[in-house]
Amino acid sequence: MAAWDEIGEALADYTVTCNSNERLRKMQRDWSRVLHFICSDTTDTFTMVVTSGEIVATTAGHDGVPDLVVTTDSETFCDMFWGDLNPVAKYLRGDIKVKGTQEDVMRLDAISYVIWPDS
Amino acid sequence: MSNATGEIQLRRSVGTATATATSAGLAFAAIDYLGVVSVMAYAPGSSGVLAIFFGGLLVLLVAAVFSELNGLYPTAAGIRIYLGRALGNRTALTVTFTYMTTVVLVIAADAFLIGAALRHVLHEPAPLAYLWIVVLLGVATAANLRGVVLAGWVQTIVTYVVLVSTVVISIIAIFHVGGAFNKPLNLFGTSSFSGIQAIAFALFLFAAFEWVTTTAEEARRPQVITRALFCAPILIWIASSLFLVALAHLVPFSHLHHSAYPQLLLGQAALGTLGEIWMLAITVLTALNTFNGGFLVASRFIYAAAREGNLPRGFARLNLAAVPWMAVSTLAIVSAVLAAVIFATGQWLLLVAVGATLEAGIYALASLSMLILRRVETRDRPFRVLAGTPLATAGFVIFTLLALATGLADPKASGHFSLAPIGVIALLAGTSALYVRFGLPRVRAAHAARQATSSPRRRPPRPAPVTSDKAPSDAALSNSGLSNVPVESESSVLGDPTVSPMEP
């Protein structure tokens, strides 16, 4: 079970890595979404706002109406945001649950794939 | 944001009408018009309506099975998950790889059928049909590569226009003076086996309706998918039955059996050139759903399989529109080659037989999965089939028999056996099984080697046992000034990876 500050640290690193990746920013330039995350083991929640491919806000709790809701345990979130875990494998095993359109689900994975192609 | 029942509401979510249109749109392609003719080959005249009725009843059983399975695993990857949990990962992979070939078959068949219909109406020489096929596939591929996705509401309108037009022109044809209903109750007229085959081919008319379960994650509630699974077959049943009666009424079967465009013949017989052009427009419209849905479903499956390490990683490569370009291009090339083979051999009815056999086989496996998961999976089910165990057992037996009936049927001569359909499926399944047995271990080894040699684990180790895993209180968060505020820039607090944006 990951502590709250561990998730925050992972999320901060993820934000910097995403926002500084030119190819990713170009690929996601038409992608503006509100993402809600739920830690199934700790019930912690947080929100990520993406505007034109840039992560512009990461906040505790749930803000706004989501386009995508991702639920998994806190350890998986940490590993995912650090790029130590392939989200697709977890998703296909049913360990990561997502609510949203298939396009958005794929876009979310594409972020990990572009910044960590060997994950 | 949650509603009164505590369910999270998405900004964009799918309701029953859209889900039903998605289900019906995925199932009702141009090849369905040929499917109706295949039913008529085994159930003469209007008796085919009975075959479609019985096929529809069986499809309602399928809808119940998929509703329970979808409730268990409401995800786009559902089929992989429940087949994997019930039958093992290797079998699940072999089956899903084979199942995905039906998408290629349908894309190729639709490209061929639309090309043939366009050539027929424009009175062009036969080889130009292939030019139309290449143009259609080229446009569909280019649109997919650019990330163009048909909006949900467009897809919904297209589906309802196609279904309503088919119904309207069929009704006009039925009331057309001069035709005669043929053998209205002769379901088992040629032989008892023909009746079973007629029902098996009728199943094909509904094929792919269950793919709506891949939209489970965007449905407002799990019940939306269940409703769509039960409503869509009814719409298809009405349209197909009326179309069959109209064909039996107005067009001699000898004209239909060797035609790749029975819908144009019906349009011509009912309303002359206007009817023919109307049905051509409808045929082209079906391509929007087939190409949009088919390319998307199959390319995302290939992408996910490559990301998971089950296919060479090249298939996961994305272009700047975030589209897995190699997956889309491969689908287009294989479809074009397949369409060329159909064009050269004239074996379009073989595709119907292969598709019908594959679908019946998948329905049998889904029934078997439900039976197994009833014993081994304890999690809650939002939808539970009443008398599920005997019904799923019956479904497994019936769909296995129907798969064999179509797999051994000669698609061009009713009453004759042929090994061609089951041979094609054996080839596809054998190729998948060989890949999973011998090719996959190498792909996975390469995947693992890449991961091992790539950058080391990035997540910092925990310095000490965690003493508090509680989220900071709202007051603490707001006092910190670091949360619930926008990320200002990369050089702000987030620029320092040791500082959390939510750290109090």
CATH superfamily of chain A: SCP2 sterol-binding domain
Oligomeric form of this entry? heterodimer
Structural class of chain B: mainly alpha
CATH second-level architecture of the largest domain in chain B: Up-down Bundle
CATH class descriptor of the largest domain in chain B: Mainly Alpha
How big a fraction of the residues of chain B is strand?
Answer: under 5%
Percentage of residues in helical conformation of chain B: 55-70%
Question: Given the structure, what is the number of helices of chain A?
Answer: 5
**Major sheet of chain B: size, sense and barrel closure?**
none
Strand fraction of chain A: 15-25%
Largest sheet strand order of chain A: 3-2-1-4-5
CATH superfamily annotation of the largest domain in chain B: Amino acid/polyamine transporter I
Main sheet overview of chain A: 5 strands, mixed
Distance N terminus to C terminus of chain A? 22 Å
Helical segment count of chain B? 17
Mean pLDDT of chain B: 82
